[in-house]
C-alpha cells in the first residue's frame, strides 16, 4: 500500500487528513484546471465540476478552459508561418520601390493638432528594437554598432512599420485618467503642509517658471514628494528652491528665513550641485536628474556662468538620449509597461529639452543639439488640467483697492505653441546663424521664404487668448508666460529678417524696406509688451527670455541711430532731434537692461555692447552718466527689495536717482515728460496717466497697417537717408555671451540667485 503524501500545514494546524481522502483529492486536482474567474482573481480553485465552490458561493459563471490539442496547435503554427511569409514578401516589394520619396519628404510645418508631429497614417504602436530595459531595469537604447547587439538582430527589415492609427476612444480615456489624477493630486497638494520657505519657493516656481518651460510634471512631482517616488528626488527639490530664490527674496518673511537659516538661499544651490554630481558619479540616470540639470543650466545661464550652463544642458540632452526619451515611448516600446503618466511625462520632458536647447543656443550663439525626427515624441499633451486654472501673479502685493483680475492660465496651450515656435526657430538657427560654417546666400533665402510663411501661419493661428496686439494693449498684462511667448515670437521675427538688412543690392532678395519694417515693428512691439509687463508685475519678475527680447529690440533701434550718423560716425544735435523716436526707444531698452543686470548678470555684456556703440556716436546715455552704479559690479541695493515688496509698479525701479541724473541726458529731448508717460510719476506715486496714453508712444496704430512701406517707415522715424545707410551696417551680436570670459560661479552675489 503506498504511503500517503505529506500535506503542508495551512497555518491553522489543520493540515493533516487521512491518506485515503488526501490521495483522492490530489488525484482530482491533477486532472482539473482552475476556472477562469478564480484564475483572474488569482485565488485557489477547488476544481469541483461542473462549478467550483467559490463560483457557487459568489454566483459567478464557472468556466473551465482546457489546453488546446496538439493538432490545433500545429494548425495555428502553420497559419502563423504563412502570414509571416506574406509579410516578408510585401516588405521586400516595398523596399524595391524608390526610397527617395521617404527620405526627401520635408518635415511638416503644419501645426494642425491632428498630426501631433507625425505624418498621417503613421501608427502609434509598434516596436523600436533599440529601446529596452538594461540589466538594472533602466530604460535605454543602443544602436546596431554598440556592444549590446549582435549583427543577427538586424536583418535589414523595416522596423518602423506603420500600424493602424489609434482610435480617439483610447486617447480620450487616457486624457480623462490623467486629468482626473491631476486634479486629485492638486487637491491633496492643497491639503498638505509644507513648511516655509519651501512652500513659498515652490509656489513661485509653479507661477513664474513652470507654465512656459514645463520642466516638471507637477502632479507626479507633488505626489512622489510625499511618497518618495520615482519622479521626485531631494536633488530636484533643491534645484527648484535654488532657482526660485531670486523671486522669493521679494517677500520679506521668506527673505528673513533664507538669510537666517539658509545662507540667503545659497544652501539650496550648493546641495543641488553636490547631489547631482554624486548621482552622475554613481551612474544614476533618471528623469529627476534630467530636470535638475535643466534648472541648474537655466540658473547658471542667467548668472553669466556660460560654461556651466552649457555643460549642464549638454548632460541633460545626453541623458534623455540615454533614457530613450528622445523616442516616442508609445510607439517604440516592446513589452515595457509604461503607464499613461509615464508617457505623458516623457513627452513633456522631450519638448522641454527641445525648447531649452533652442533658447540656450540663442543666448550663447551656439548650434542647437536636439533635432526632431520621425521617431520623436509627438507634440501631444493629454493632461490639460491646468489650461483653465486661474492664474495670479504669486508674491505680488498691489496697493489697496487694486486686484489682478481672474484670468485662465492657458498653460498647456502656451507650452504647445512655444514648442511649435521653437521648431520654426530651429530652422532659422541652422540655416541663418550657424556659428561653425558660413550660411550661403541661397540657403538663407530659402530659409527666409519657408520660415517667414511658417511664422505667419503660426501667428495667424495663435489663439486670441494667447495673442497680444501691440496696437491694442490691455490695461493689465496677461500672465507672464503669455507675455514671454509673444515677445519671443517678435524676437524670432527680427532674427529672421535682420540678416537681410545688410544684404548687397545685387542679392536675390533686395526688398530691404520690407525687412526693415518687420524688424522695427517687432522691436516696437517687444518694448510695448515688456513695458506693460513691468507696470503690471515689476521688472524684476521677468525671466531671462524677456531680457533677451529687449536686447534684440535695442539692436534694431541702435541700427537706426547708427544709420542716421552716416559716414561721419557722429550724430549732430539736429540729427539727434530727428532721431528722437529711435533714441527714446533705445533709451528705454538701456534703462531696462541696466536694471535687469541686477537679476541676470549675463545681460551686462549685452548692455555693454550697446553703450560702447553709442559712445562712438558721441551720445551720452543714462548707463554711462556720472554717478551711475553698475549693478553687475556692486550688486543691487538690498533696500530695493523692501520697496518692491509694497508695489508692483516699475516706476520706482527705473527712477532711482533719476532727478540727480536728469541734467546729464543731453541730446535726448523731452526726457522728463517722456519718462512720466512711460515709467509713471517721478514722485513714485501711482501714475494717473491712463494706460492707453502711456502706451501710445510704443504702439503701431492700425491706421498705418495698409499704408505704403515708405509711409510706414516714416511713422517709425526712418527717413530715406537712414534707410539707404542701413545696408552698410552690421548689427551687433545676436548672443549674450560673457564679455570678459570670466566665470562668476562660486562668487555670485547672494542677490543674484
TrEMBL record:
One GO MF term? zinc ion binding
Q: Which UniProt keywords apply?
A: DNA-binding, Metal-binding, Nucleus, Transcription, Transcription regulation, Zinc
Give the GO cellular component terms, alphabetically: nucleus
What SMART domains does this protein's entry cite?
Fungal_trans, GAL4
Per UniProt, the ranges with Low complexity bias are 8-26, 88-103
Q: SUPFAM superfamilies annotated for this entry? A: Zn2/Cys6 DNA-binding domain (SSF57701)
* GO BP, one annotated term: DNA-templated transcription
Q: Where is the composition biased (Polar residues)?
A: 637-652
Annotated region described as Disordered, given as residue ranges: 1-26, 83-125, 622-652
Among Gene3D superfamilies, the record links this protein to: Zn(2)-C6 fungal-type DNA-binding domain
Q: Where in the cell is it found?
A: Nucleus
Residue ranges of domain Zn(2)-C6 fungal-type in the record: 34-64
* Stated name of the protein: Zn(2)-C6 fungal-type domain-containing protein
Q: Which organism is it from?
A: Gnomoniopsis smithogilvyi
Amino acid at each position: 500500500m503506498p504511503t500517503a503524501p505529506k500535506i503542508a500545514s495551512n497555518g491553522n494546524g489543520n493540515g493533516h487528513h487521512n491518506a485515503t481522502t488526501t490521495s483522492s483529492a490530489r488525484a482530482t486536482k491533477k486532472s482539473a484546471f482552475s476556472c477562469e474567474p478564480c484564475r483572474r482573481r488569482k485565488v485557489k480553485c477547488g476544481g469541483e465540476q461542473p462549478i467550483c465552490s467559490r463560483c457557487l458561493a459568489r454566483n459567478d459563471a464557472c468556466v473551465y478552459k482546457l489546453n488546446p490539442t496538439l493538432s490545433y496547435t500545429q494548425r495555428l503554427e502553420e497559419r502563423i508561418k504563412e502570414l509571416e511569409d506574406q509579410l516578408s514578401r510585401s516588405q521586400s516589394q516595398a523596399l524595391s520601390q524608390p526610397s527617395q520619396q521617404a527620405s526627401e519628404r520635408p518635415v511638416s510645418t503644419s501645426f494642425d493638432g491632428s498630426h501631433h508631429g507625425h505624418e498621417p497614417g503613421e501608427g502609434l504602436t509598434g516596436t523600436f528594437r533599440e529601446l529596452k530595459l538594461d540589466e538594472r531595469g533602466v530604460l535605454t537604447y543602443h544602436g546596431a554598432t554598440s556592444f549590446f547587439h549582435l549583427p543577427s538582430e538586424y536583418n535589414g527589415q523595416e522596423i518602423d512599420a506603420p500600424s493602424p492609427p489609434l482610435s480617439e476612444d483610447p486617447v480620450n480615456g487616457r486624457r480623462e485618467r490623467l486629468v482626473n489624477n491631476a486634479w486629485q493630486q492638486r487637491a491633496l497638494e492643497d491639503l498638505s503642509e509644507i513648511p516655509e520657505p519651501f512652500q513659498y519657493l515652490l509656489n513661485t516656481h509653479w507661477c513664474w517658471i513652470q507654465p512656459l518651460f514645463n520642466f516638471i510634471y507637477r502632479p507626479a512631482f507633488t505626489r512622489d514628494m510625499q511618497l518618495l517616488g520615482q519622479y521626485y528626488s531631494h536633488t530636484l527639490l533643491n534645484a527648484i528652491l535654488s532657482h526660485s530664490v531670486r523671486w522669493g527674496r521679494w517677500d520679506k518673511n521668506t527673505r528673513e528665513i533664507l538669510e537666517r537659516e539658509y545662507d540667503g538661499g545659497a544652501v539650496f544651490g550648493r546641495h543641488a550641485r553636490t547631489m547631482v554630481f554624486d548621482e552622475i558619479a554613481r551612474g544614476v540616470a533618471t528623469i529627476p536628474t534630467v530636470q535638475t540639470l535643466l534648472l541648474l543650466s537655466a540658473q547658471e545661464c542667467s548668472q553669466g556662468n556660460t560654461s556651466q550652463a552649457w555643460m549642464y544642458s549638454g548632460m541633460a540632452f545626453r541623458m534623455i538620449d540615454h533614457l530613450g526619451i528622445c523616442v516616442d515611448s508609445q510607439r517604440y516600446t516592446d513589452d515595457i509597461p509604461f503607464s499613461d503618466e509615464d508617457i505623458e511625462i516623457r513627452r513633456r520632458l522631450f519638448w522641454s529639452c527641445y525648447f531649452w536647447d533652442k533658447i540656450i543656443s540663442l543666448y550663447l550663439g551656439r548650434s542647437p543639439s536636439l533635432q526632431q525626427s520621425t521617431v520623436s515624441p509627438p507634440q501631444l499633451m493629454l493632461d490639460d488640467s491646468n489650461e483653465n486654472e486661474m492664474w495670479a501673479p504669486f508674491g505680488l502685493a498691489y496697493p489697496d483697492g487694486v486686484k489682478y483680475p481672474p484670468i485662465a492660465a492657458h498653460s498647456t496651450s502656451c507650452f504647445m505653441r512655444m514648442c511649435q515656435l521653437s521648431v520654426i526657430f530651429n530652422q532659422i538657427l541652422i540655416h541663418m546663424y550657424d556659428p561653425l560654417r558660413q550660411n550661403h546666400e541661397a540657403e538663407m533665402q530659402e530659409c527666409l521664404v519657408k520660415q517667414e510663411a511658417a511664422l505667419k501661419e503660426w501667428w495667424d493661428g495663435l489663439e486670441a487668448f494667447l495673442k497680444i496686439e501691440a496696437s491694442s494693449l490691455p490695461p493689465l498684462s496677461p500672465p507672464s508666460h503669455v507675455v514671454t511667448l509673444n515677445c519671443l515670437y517678435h524676437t524670432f521675427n527680427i532674427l529672421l529678417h535682420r540678416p537681410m538688412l545688410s544684404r548687397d543690392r545685387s542679392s536675390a532678395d533686395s526688398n530691404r524696406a520690407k525687412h526693415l519694417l518687420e524688424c522695427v515693428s517687432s522691436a516696437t512691439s517687444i518694448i510695448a509688451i515688456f513695458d506693460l509687463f513691468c507696470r503690471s508685475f515689476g521688472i524684476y519678475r521677468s525671466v531671462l527670455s524677456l531680457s533677451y527680447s529687449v536686447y534684440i529690440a535695442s539692436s534694431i533701434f541702435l541700427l537706426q541711430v547708427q544709420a542716421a550718423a552716416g559716414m561721419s560716425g557722429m550724430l549732430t544735435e539736429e540729427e539727434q532731434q530727428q532721431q528722437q523716436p529711435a533714441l527714446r526707444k533705445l533709451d528705454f531698452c538701456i534703462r531696462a537692461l541696466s536694471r535687469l543686470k541686477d537679476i541676470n548678470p549675463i545681460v551686462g555684456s549685452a548692455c555693454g555692447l550697446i553703450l560702447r556703440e553709442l559712445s562712438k556716436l558721441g551720445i551720452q546715455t543714462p548707463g554711462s552718466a556720472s554717478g551711475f552704479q553698475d549693478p553687475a559690479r556692486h550688486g543691487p541695493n538690498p533696500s530695493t527689495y523692501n520697496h518692491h515688496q509694497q508695489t508692483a509698479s516699475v516706476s520706482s525701479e527705473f527712477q532711482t536717482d533719476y532727478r540727480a541724473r536728469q541734467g546729464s541726458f543731453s541730446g535726448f529731448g523731452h526726457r522728463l515728460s517722456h519718462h512720466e508717460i512711460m515709467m509713471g510719476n517721478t514722485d513714485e506715486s501711482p501714475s494717473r496717466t491712463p494706460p492707453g496714453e502711456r502706451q501710445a508712444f510704443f504702439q503701431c496704430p492700425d491706421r498705418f497697417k495698409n499704408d505704403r512701406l515708405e509711409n510706414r517707415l516714416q511713422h517709425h522715424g526712418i527717413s530715406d537717408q537712414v534707410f539707404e545707410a542701413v545696408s552698410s551696417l552690421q548689427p551687433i551680436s545676436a548672443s549674450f555671451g560673457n564679455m570678459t570670459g570670466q566665470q562668476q560661479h562660486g562668487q555670485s552675489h547672494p542677490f543674484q540667485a
